[in-house]
UniProtKB/TrEMBL annotation:
<keyword id="KW-0812">Transmembrane</keyword>
<dbReference type="InterPro" id="IPR050391">
    <property type="entry name" value="Mito_Metabolite_Transporter"/>
</dbReference>
<feature type="repeat" description="Solcar">
    <location>
        <begin position="198"/>
        <end position="293"/>
    </location>
</feature>
<feature type="repeat" description="Solcar">
    <location>
        <begin position="5"/>
        <end position="93"/>
    </location>
</feature>
<dbReference type="InterPro" id="IPR023395">
    <property type="entry name" value="MCP_dom_sf"/>
</dbReference>
<keyword id="KW-0677">Repeat</keyword>
<dbReference type="InterPro" id="IPR018108">
    <property type="entry name" value="MCP_transmembrane"/>
</dbReference>
<dbReference type="GO" id="GO:0016020">
    <property type="term" value="C:membrane"/>
</dbReference>
<dbReference type="Pfam" id="PF00153">
    <property type="entry name" value="Mito_carr"/>
</dbReference>
<dbReference type="InterPro" id="IPR002067">
    <property type="entry name" value="MCP"/>
</dbReference>
<feature type="repeat" description="Solcar">
    <location>
        <begin position="101"/>
        <end position="188"/>
    </location>
</feature>
<dbReference type="GO" id="GO:0055085">
    <property type="term" value="P:transmembrane transport"/>
</dbReference>
<comment type="similarity">
    <text>Belongs to the mitochondrial carrier (TC 2.A.29) family.</text>
</comment>
<keyword id="KW-1133">Transmembrane helix</keyword>
<protein>
    <recommendedName>
        <fullName>Mitochondrial carrier protein</fullName>
    </recommendedName>
</protein>
<keyword id="KW-0472">Membrane</keyword>
<keyword id="KW-0813">Transport</keyword>
Amino acid sequence: MSEELPLSLSFLGGSLSSCAAEFVTFPMDQLKTKMQLGGTQGAIKYSGPIHAIKDGFAKSGIKGFYWGFVPAMNRQFVFSGIRISIYDKSKAYFGLDSLSGGIFQRFLIGAFSGAVSSFLCTPLDVAKIRIINDPKKEKYTGFVDVLSKTWKNEGLVNGFYRGSSPTIFRSIVVNAVELGTYDNSKNLLMNWFGFSESSIALRFWASVAAGFFASVASSPIDVVKTRYMNASKADPKALKGNEIRYTSPLDCFKKIIANEGIGAMYNGFWFLWLRLGPWCTIMFLTWDAYKDYVGREYKKYKVKKALKSS
């Protein structure tokens, strides 16, 4: 078992492992966002994943798939650092080690850590989505510009925290399922099949399960969040081209179902899973490797410190 890390090192581990996963899978996140818009709000309606990939490559090449990368990484560094450190410290507080029970407790702790981190990082999520959906730079020149204009034109609540409720709700669901499934899957594999706690196979299959179930649970919320946050202002009567405005996340959900059917809740699902599945695998494997290495070094540091003070 890895040495329990102090809050700062736990935060850094969550940040670095998540940024590594974000770098590899960001193109899928961008394509997923475009598919979720489903031709609304001035976006192109793609016939399928291949159409979305071809269109993106034709317009901007490979670099176009990393448009919006800077705000995504900024958001991920802060968001995951907060959620992982809260999750780790909460598990330690309640004594939930690798072989203990606590199935539901892990889901609850994951939900709590997701809620707190998502609330704090919603402004960065808004900036990421708006930059991704402005590839021609017609509205924003970059990360600083979108933050500045959103603050000036829409303010804190209507601008940065527009869509905070679906964002937070999504984060509660994703983190509860993702973190809870990962730890509970490891617990099951160790107790039922005798996997070693440090086994790469254990961590790999647990991360695969976490990515799949998190994708299934979060897709409907993710679609609503993307559509709602991309609309700059709530005006239920205004139509701008084919852009439908929404008064609330619930209104957005109802209009999607009414106009496009329940299947629209899984627009971009394959990109979501192709992104979240590998993302979870890279993140969790990196996170556990970080804890193994840094935990050993931190233990040595504590021993040396204790010897010096004795």
